[in-house]
From TrEMBL:
PROSITE patterns: HTH_MARR_2. It comes from Lentzea cavernae. Gene3D superfamilies: Winged helix-like DNA-binding domain superfamily/Winged helix DNA-binding domain. This is MarR family transcriptional regulator. InterPro entries: HTH_MarR-typ, MarR/SlyA-like, WH-like_DNA-bd_sf, WH_DNA-bd_sf. SUPFAM superfamilies: Winged helix' DNA-binding domain. Pfam families: MarR_2. Residues 17-153 form the HTH marR-type domain. PANTHER family: HTH-TYPE TRANSCRIPTIONAL REPRESSOR YETL (PTHR33164:SF43), TRANSCRIPTIONAL REGULATOR, MARR FAMILY (PTHR33164).
Length: 165
């Protein structure tokens, strides 16, 4: 690839056509890094935002159910939630104790962090859709979703463990 000499911001390239699959994978990595860095500026990571989103939609869900939904181990989810509790973003509404099912809820601070996370995703969406020709932005997310739905879930992937749990 060569830098744009025309001042339009376009990158010129010689050689065979670029693979759409390759571009989606590269963009996905770059967007994930960007989102994680912006969230990190506020002391949270994507795993924290995910847990807050699940708890927001399903209050009182247990550690093990949250772990299953996120395709992580219960121990990993406990670590995530422990950090969120320490930050005041989540509160336990049941007494702690071995063998007891913990019920958790999002606090006002947790809702603030969840909305902040949504703003990070909105900003990333804006960067992506700004690159789409006029009138095409409304078609982008549905087209990507349709492409996603056409790929089978790979055996052994994090997504397959989420579906079989």
């Amino acid at each position: 690839m060569a830098e744009d000499k025309s001042g339009t911001g376009a990158i010129s390239r010689t050689g065979p056509p670029i693979s759409a699959a390759f571009l989606v994978m590269a963009l996905g990595r770059r967007v994930k890094d960007h989102v994680e860095n912006r969230l990190g500026e506020h002391g949270i990571a994507l795993r924290h935002l995910s847990a807050l989103g699940h708890l927001h939609r399903t209050p009182d869900v247990s550690y093990s159910e949250l772990a299953r939904r996120a395709a992580v181990t219960p121990q990993s989810m406990q670590d995530t939630l422990r950090l969120l509790e320490k930050a005041g973003a989540v509160v336990r509404v049941t007494e702690p104790g071995r063998g007891r099912t913990a019920k958790l809820r999002v606090t006002d601070e947790g809702h603030r962090l969840r909305l902040l996370g949504q703003a990070v995703f909105d900003a990333a969406d804006a960067v992506i859709t700004a690159a789409v020709p006029s009138g095409g932005a409304d078609l982008l997310a549905p087209a990507l979703l349709a492409a996603l739905e056409r790929f089978p879930v790979e055996p052994g992937s994090a997504e397959s463990s989420r579906e079989t749990s």
